[in-house]
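User: I'm putting together a small comparison set for a docking exercise, and I want a reference complex before I start. The sequence is below, and the ligand is DLL. Could you produce the 3D structure with the ligand included, as structure tokens?
Assistant: Of course. I'll restate your input first, then give the structure tokens for the complex.
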Amino acid sequence: MTTATPSRVRPPAPSELDPEERMTRAEIEQLQLERLQQTVRHAYANVPLYTRKFDDAGVHPDDIRTLADVERLPFTTKADLRETYPFGMFAVPMADVARIHASSGTTGRPTVVGYTKGDLDRWGSLVARSLRASGIRAGMKVHNAYGYGLFTGGLGAHAGIEALGATVIPMSGGQTARQVQLICDFEPDAILCTPSYLLTIADAMVAQGIDPRSTSLKVAVLGAEPWTNEMRHELEQRLDIDALDIYGLSEVMGPGVGNECLETKDGPHVWEDHFLPEVIDGETLAALPDGDLGELVFTSLTKEAFPVIRYRTRDLTRLLPGTARPGMRRMEKITGRNDDMIILRGVNLFPTQIEELVLGIEQLTPHFILELSRDGRMDSLTVRIERHPELSVETCQSAAEVLAKRIKVHVGSTVAVQLEEPGALPRSEGKYKRVYDLR
Ligand code: DLL
């Protein structure tokens, strides 16, 4: 989708792209097959869990003769990572592991991943490719507000900014007032953070009397949580920037598994020279054709320390043909995760569907949370949304009623919409917690 905001940055010229970004589909697939065969051999030989799972499934690395043969391999899930916690899925000796990251997860043990020096170099160059696709280039200043530490966002983005030859401002998340001050003082060209945190930062600018459209920022590379094209539009208008989508997950690498291209802004291109994506039916586990909506699955093609074979991400999307990079497929902007889906009296609903509708009503603010509760034996959903500080309560109340009606029409659920005072709801400092289950 294109937006009304004229770009303040330019896409890379063909000569600035990596050679792989210019490959044809056939060349990419040939490269993928060679790398898939190597990865499968490496995982089978060095990770006992893969040896056992392949043997149980009656498949051997020599059976992988075409890309379609990937479907013969068993899936890997978060449960496999938990079972082998902390380092059981590392495929190289610990002495060759240069860095460890972990994702906290919502329950139980964290997921631990490792990188060799070579993995870190490839990760840096893929984030650099992602930032370049977003319109960032050497010589620009980049404010990195992804959290540093075990989360892959901060250090992953950091390495990419350096690999691109841009100037990194390693701010990390939180301390919002300070973020605003440093944006004003250091005049970065670009900001990297979650979309919900950029909203928090824009509000903090307004609170300090700064017009968010007046800063030096030209582009934002946003990810780590689902967000809609309506949110893109909101952020682009409020901050006078281009907002691009960066996708990734720790188990597969971290940020930079895919990224949108500035020219098209039509969902992240998957960097298919390093990752083989599939979409499957989450129930039957059958592979789905491109274009069908389902669960995204990845096989890494170049990872040494932590190869993943058919890792089930739980993210829901569809694979589409490449546009700005015709050799690589795109994924549609993620609707949500299997685990975020709310089942309300038999109707499936994603927080992004509500986000889309909220942002379609001008008199509403983008600050809302979803609360699930139980009235007797019935589940109910309340959208708690902050009223617009500059509009009358009556105007906001009627906008809230419009929202309830639109949710009924578009999603099929009856929900309550409750207006809150400006500033009453928690603000994001990273990945935003949108849903509160009080049942
Ligand atoms: O969130 C890696 C990352 C950092 C990506 C910074 C982009 C920017 P995890 O903490 O392991 O890793 O969480 C991965 O976050 O499975 C998705 O559900 C969600 N996610 C990540 N990027 C996007 C995106 C990082 N662009 C999980 N759109 C993934 C929607 C996203 N969801």
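The CA atoms of residues 341 and 350 lie 5 Å apart. The chain has a mean pLDDT of 96.
User: Thanks, that's exactly what I needed.
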